[in-house]
Amino acid sequence: MTIHKNKCILTVSFAGIVFLIMAFGVKTNPNWFLKFDQFLQQIIQQHNTFTNEFFISMTNVGSVSAVMLVSAGTSVYLIYKHHYRELLFLLFNIIISTGVITQVIKHLIKRPRPQPQLILESGYSFPSGHSMATILLYGSLIVLISYHFNPSILKKVSLVILMSFIVIIPISRVFVNVHYPSDVIAGISLGYVLLTLSRFFFLDLHLFFKRSSS
């Protein structure tokens, strides 16, 4: 338990530091930071008919409508199962972390989006809302599946698919050129911090006190 706790503290701390480095880079705009973004853009933005169709499809999986649809379906299931603490965990991540916190930071940083875009997006660029929504929604599903489902092939396949979304959707945002790589790295990092903290306060603390009292 202590090893797991220390690992969580280290990973959250690392993710927080990464986010702060990205935010500092955006605000100060040093030469190394520009080259960092440009280098990753050159690697990711390899356009052809297949990659265009694939990454546009994947970026839609992280859209507002997709997030709301998956969140609504999961919420109905959690209510049906009387998992109200897990419902609060999910809704906090979607409404507060994805909705409120992301927009507050975007309007504080006010970074313009890259141009030209493969698909049309408006608003500020930093951090990537799609990346934050992806790790907070699909990461929440990974946590809930891990908590409530017994080991099985279906569980393993589900976790692999969800983890694939968390990797591919942020990359798709760079591919379609609506975000800089630093935007999605910041979104993933901050999203991971918020996901881990919400899991601790909504789920882990409850389990800890439950086990202590038994």
Helicity level: over 70%
**Count of folded domains:** 1
Strand content: under 5%
Q: Please count the beta strands (DSSP E, at least 2 residues each).
A: 0
Helix run count: 8
**In angstroms, what separates the terminal alpha carbons?**
17 Å
Report mean pLDDT, rounded to a whole number.
Answer: 92
Determine the oligomeric state from the structure. Answer: single chain
How does the major sheet shape up?
A: none
Structural class: mainly alpha
Using only C-alpha atoms, the radius of gyration works out to 18 Å
Order of helices and strands: HHHHHHHH
Instruction: Give the uncertain stretches in residue-range form.
Output: none
Gross morphology is globular
Describe this structure in words.
81% of the residues lie in helices and 0% in strands. It has one domain. The relative contact order is 0.17. Helix 5 packs antiparallel against helix 8, helix 6 packs antiparallel against helix 7 and helix 7 packs antiparallel against helix 8. The two termini are 17 Å apart. It is mainly α and 214 residues long. The model has no long low-confidence stretch (mean pLDDT 92).
Short overview:
It is built from eight helices and no strands. With 214 residues, the chain is mostly helical. The mean pLDDT is 92.
Structural key phrases:
81% helix; 214 residues; mainly alpha; 8 helices
